[in-house]
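S1.2 Input.
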Amino acid sequence: MFKEERNSAQFNWSMIGDIEKGRPNLGNNMEVAVYRLMQFTMRDIMIKNLGVEAAEKIIYEAGELAGKEFCLKFVTKGNDLSDFLREVQEIMEKLNIGIVRIEHYDPQKQMITLTVAEDLDCSGLPPCGETICTYDEGFLSGLVSQHTGISFIARETDCWCNGDRVCRFEVKPAL
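S1.3 Output.
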């Protein structure tokens, strides 16, 4: 299941396991620092071994898969895109992923500008002059793509690590 060679993603929710059974005392919560430790050490090793471009591609694709699976598991089906985005806001805040705000939505062009405050990836990090939320870009792309059935891309335009106090993303249909 985890070490077999394959050409396509094989994720399924059974890989998450029974958290309630496996962690009867510690439960479902952990510190954000531990999440960041895992993410940033994996990113560091991928960059070291594969280079920045390949590492960023893998991180985006992993986020994209996660967004699709998240949509299938947590988000109501059949909503129009506006209602879908409101539901995503509620779910992400409830799960302590981040506080999502829709800044602009153009239903004709299906273009979305949204911000995420207090996000898991970078809120509170020192400025480094880079946008670093590549996983979040993929996540948002996968989430909206799964809901609409249309391929979307997401790009971070502002980031806490660039001195902003929220991360801003442009989400639009892929050409």
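S1.4 Remarks. The chain has a mean pLDDT of 94.
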